Amino acid sequence: MPTIQHTDGLIAALFTPLHPDGAVHYELLPALVEHLIASGISGIFICGSNGEGPNLTLEERMQVTETVINAGKGRLRMIVHVGHASIAEARKLARHAQEAGADAISSVAAFYFKPTSVQNLADCMTEIASGAPELPFYYYHIPSLTGFSVDVLDFMRIAEKQIRNFAGVKYTASTLWEYQECLNYEGGKYDVLYGFDENHLPALAMGAKGCIGSTFNFAAPFYLKVRQYFEAGEIDKARKQMLFCVEMVRIVVQYAPIPAQKAVMKMLGFDMGPCRLPLEALSDEQYHALHCQLTDIGFFKFLPTGEALPAPLTTLDNS
């Protein structure tokens, strides 16, 4: 049975870069890994929602997984999302992740034919997790995208009994009261990662240590400053820094969130290419408007553009 590791720090939900024709741009992935290391990231979540995992073929997901792990193994914690509408295919991805050297796996609930109960969900996750018995398994709770919601604490009670490699939950929802219950279940035995970027500071107040986020790809230094202030007991400064993060997220989500975030990466020197349909890239007008809005709040004042990799920043008070 794998040891449960309690994550501390930021895990970036990695984008999958694409060529203009929609083919995966594998060659860019090692540079993205180096960028994240330079930004102070602790781990990578591979082929999740932000990485357009459900829009990639099995072969593409496997090659992305191998490329990222080879680029960052031993320097970043590698969690591979293996969720799929087909439980059998998810199990294949789990087995491959283990063979590729991943540190852990995670899966969403099936999102076409959905689970019918908490027990049914646990049975599905048990089947997937059994594909990689040597790796810690995290249930990925994201009802806004799967269209499936469940009492996560009830799931944990069942999962700990029947999923031998159950390690915790990637909790991506705004219901902080339930997150806190899960975090403290069995005295905090399980690793419950928080995944709602704009609730980062409230999650820290609930006891969060490890968090997975999409905006960590380009704004990790801002969140690291929030954590630094919080841990130092400088709560007013933490609130001020967090408000900046919230303003940034509010601007980005005015547009389609994943295409907009890929656009931000391009503004910072990483051309991530388009998205896979049904996601659509921002128009030129939207791209310009997004750039202007981020400029207005001082975003680019602290995050350099161009080819140079941004180093962790130390002065982010935005005063």
TrEMBL record:
Main location as per UniProt: cytoplasm
Claim: Protein transport is one of the keywords in the record: no
Subcellular location: Cytoplasm
Highest taxon in the source lineage: Bacteria
GO molecular function: lyase activity
Keyword tags: Carbohydrate metabolism, Cytoplasm, Lyase
A cellular component term, taken from the record's GO annotations: cytoplasm
Transmembrane segment boundaries: none
Active site residues per record: Y140 (proton donor/acceptor), K170 (schiff-base intermediate with substrate)
Annotated SUPFAM superfamilies: Aldolase
Annotated residues for binding of pyruvate: I212
Keyword set includes Repeat: no
Family per record: Belongs to the DapA family.
Protein name: N-acetylneuraminate lyase
